[in-house]
Known about the structure:
Blueprint: E1 4-11, H1 13-17, H2 21-31, E2 34-41, H3 45-51, H4 61-68, E3 73-81, H5 83-91, H6 104-108, E4 117-119, H7 123-133, H8 146-149
Antiparallel strand pairs: 1-3, 1-4, 2-3
Amino acid sequence: MSTAEQTYIMVKPDGVQRGLVGEIIARFEKRGFKLVALKLATPPKEHLEAHYADLKDKAFFPSLIKYMLSGPVVCMVWEGLDAVKTGRAMLGATNPLASAPGTIRGDYALQTGANVCHGSDSVENGQKEIQLWFPEGIAQYKLSSADWVYES
């Protein structure tokens, strides 16, 4: 059964620099998800290290942090039925070469190191990421199109 949940989606520096923010937002809106938080950020190294703490022992960790410090990121929280699973499907595989055409990474990325977006990999991690990136909280409102997107 599908459940309403929230997911954290971040447009990485390459996506921001390439002007893909609007396209990515449009895809989530067209899918029927509700945007409940949005900001442009230039996070410090410590913040990025906290976000990617699960990868700290990987050989690529220093280059990942360097890349993420190379420009601003766009931080978003999207809400809807199965938002985490569907969001990940919309992004495509972490390695863009394994991503299907029609996914964000499949359409816009060529390398794992610059793969346009990050998306929460579980509901639990999504909540941790939302708290890390939006300590001020998120918007609460009813999406006017919800009755047209979701079955009663």
